[in-house]
Amino acid sequence: MDKTLAIIKPDATKKRIIGKIIERIEAEGFTIARMKLVHLTKDEAKGFYIVHKEKGFYDSLTEFMSSGPVVIMVLEAENAVRLWRDAMGATDPALAKPGTIRHAHGFSIERNATHGSDARETAEWEIDYFFKK
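The structure corresponding to this sequence follows.
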């Protein structure tokens, strides 16, 4: 089984659609191996998104991700990273295919309901960031 990190972002928790997203995760065949509801501090968000530090959206992204509770999960499935990214859809909800989570629930590139690891190596780092071994 492969693993990936998934986050239900503050925009989705505010809209009270956590259950809908978890239902979709299970319908896609994932096992939720770990899960927690947290309110990230600004420093935790900055640490998690450190790879984007030099990009223009870093401050607004970390501000947003620390603006309300998030649900952080470790998902397991064969080809978990690809499967979760396919279920989420494109980062920009306007470009996401119909039927994807971001198409259905996203508002903008930042406020797009969910986060997912982009590679197996990234998933390992991200899982360790939130679920220390």
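The helical segments are 10-14, 18-27, 42-48, 58-65, 80-88, 101-105, 120-130.
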